[in-house]
Design a protein that fits this description.
5 copies of one chain form a homopentamer. Helices cover about 5% and strands about 45% of the residues of chain A. By secondary structure, the first copy, chain A, is mainly beta. The first copy, chain A, has one domain: OB fold (Dihydrolipoamide Acetyltransferase, E2P) (Beta Barrel), CATH 2.40.50. In chain A, the strands form 2 sheets. In chain A, strands 1-3-4-6-5 form a 5-stranded mixed β-barrel. At the A-B interface, strand 1, strand 2, strand 4 and helix 1 of A face strand 5, helix 1, strand 6 and strand 7 of B. Strand 6 of chain A pairs antiparallel with strand 2 of chain D.
């Protein structure tokens, strides 16, 4: 599961009806210190993540499993809010 | 779901019959300000997207779910038309 | 679906038996003007594509759907032969 | 299956309940000599891997198969601990 | 299917039991002339490939189909041994 940082949100009125009932957050892939890498994608939030937090995202068919209904047309879903990350013996991230 | 910009269309007479009944749009991955990133791909449009709009695309097996029939041989489908994007506290895109 | 150019073919005598009954073409990802991008892959041809043509390929599990039998071990299949591409208001490719 | 090095761990209290009962390790893709490549991801450990070890990870829907229950929302799972790697006739890695 | 060169092997004693009964070869993505591209991955061999040979690999869920049992936790499987490749009218590779 990629590590990602919640950096904002996406608003869409016209959309597949099966995307309703879930917040579409803007997330950027991040390194173990929480630094954004590359351009953001949109992920469906299933755990109540907030802006600035580091999260874990499940992608591909696993995103549909994470979405609680494999018939939802999603390919990226937030499955965990990270409390901390340890990398090479150091704590590189702690949720504030 | 990657953010993409609708930049054109693809015309194909000879094709898998299951691709019929849907418009094949040319879309480029985009950043949160709508700037095109890299070379475009073809996505099946399920929401009536128009050229110049920013959209969300579902990819992989989720594209087949989005296409309304998992037996359609597609790996990228437009599932939402974006109204706006918020990134790091700023509105980086608003549909015109 | 990625746009690809048919650039050649792959010959293999020793192979999974389920790959038989289909031509294995060499295709390179291409931009909207048909210029090759990166190194080629092998795709199963389901539409009678010819060398030099631009095509659309379905990848991942959608390739197996495209192959007419989800038990064929393929991850890239040609699903359409492109007649033309429109990109940012211009015709960037027309089949000759 | 990509080769990866176990470089740490991820702690998350708020998460999809189906992620419980497995350790979430931080792993970095690695070359055949065990050198880290790019930013790490989180993989569910199914084989008791330890920090510093080289492992094989299964990704995508195969990660869910590896997790012992295809309803677990994971897209990366450790499926083997490498003892050694041979690359171009040389032993490039041996587990210490 | 990506073209890959068999460059070695991976040995693992501790592994998912469903990986047994198949050789884990080290393969590098390759161009049409057989030159290695990037770092190698591990692929399950189903066709008796040998070191130095160019092969075709099926990835993702198609790898599990190729493995003869969709419950094997693999995401890369060798499905063919290439005899030759034709690229832009030239024979770029012939098995020796």
């Amino acid at each position: 599961m990629r590590i990602a940082k919640v950096v904002g949100m996406a608003i869409a009125t016209v959309k597949d009806r099966r995307l309703e009932g879930g917040k579409c957050l803007l997330v950027s892939a991040a390194d173990s210190a929480g630094r954004e890498q590359g351009i953001p994608i949109v992920a469906l939030d299933m755990v109540g993540a907030g802006e600035g937090e580091l999260v874990m995202i499940a992608e591909g068919s696993s995103a549909r499993v994470a979405a609680g209904d494999v018939n939802r047309p999603v390919d990226a879903v937030i499955v965990a809010i990270l409390d901390s990350l340890q990398h090479n013996g150091k704590t590189t991230y702690t949720k504030s």
